[in-house]
Protein: D-isomer specific 2-hydroxyacid dehydrogenase, NAD-binding protein
Amino acid sequence: MSKIVVSTSSFDFDHNPAIQRLQAQGFTVTGNPYRRKLAEDEIIDLLSTDTVALLAGVEPLTEHVLTSASALRVIARCGTGMDSVDLKAAQQRNIKVSNTPEAPAQAVAELTLGLMLDCLRQINHTDRSVRKGEWPRTQGRLLAARTVGIVGLGHIGRRVAKLCQAFEAKVIAHDPHLQQAPGGIELVSLNTLLEQADIVTLHLPYSPDVRHLINAEAIAHMQPGTIFINAARGGLVDETALCTALNSGHIEAAALDSFEQEPYQGPLRECKRAILTSHIGSLARETRQRMEIEAAENLWRGMVEAGLINE
Structure:
């Protein structure tokens, strides 16, 4: 019987009805033995030539990987981003690809809000000082008094906007795919957003066209004292340029949950003004369960459409 691979670093096999239905039909379901993001050679080995369907994490599903996995017909991403999948190569090989864009939106939006509040009130910095025996009387700033600029107004960006509006912040946004924004949000050009926002937060997918969208030139357009958040995708930010701006004080604080290379080992680790988290945006228990169930249902539907199973 053909094989199904679940390559996400963690997965609740015991409480996933679609996976259990597939196992009942006789499919062998194999998990990720490393329990971390897989490298290209590792996912090639795991898929081999007998895997017909993949419930994918963020491992690189390159043309080389898809060519090697000669039996693969379905990919169901457990998450939003599709930048790890060579969609053109998948289409050429008649591989059906899906994702779960709605499931992680609330969790990522809430983490983004938490990162904003941490930057504004210097929660992490104050905690570290108290643990060293200090008693700083740090004066923070209110989100309610800030203008938040959201780059990308999709599932996550819109939720971030609602949360910020609930705090009475002004929200502006840039999204070239929209002609009109939801209530209370002003659509502006990217340069206008960078110039006017006190807080800039990214919520757009990665593609080569937007690599280093936030670079030294973009940072120069930002107001002195801007707070910068990236809970979207690594590669959108020139991390070296951001580090320089943090060290100079032009960027007052930054918080990043995703990086160009992960696990992250770069210079931002030495920046006291930077808050770094380990790509945990979607890792809320309720969200993770929903993502896994939706991805498995997408996998099931893809296998039906591919003629691998009956409805």
In short: Residues 105-276 form a domain with the Rossmann fold fold (CATH 3.40.50.720). The chain has two domains: 3-103+285-305, 105-276. The radius of gyration is 21 Å. DSSP finds eleven helices and twelve strands in the chain.
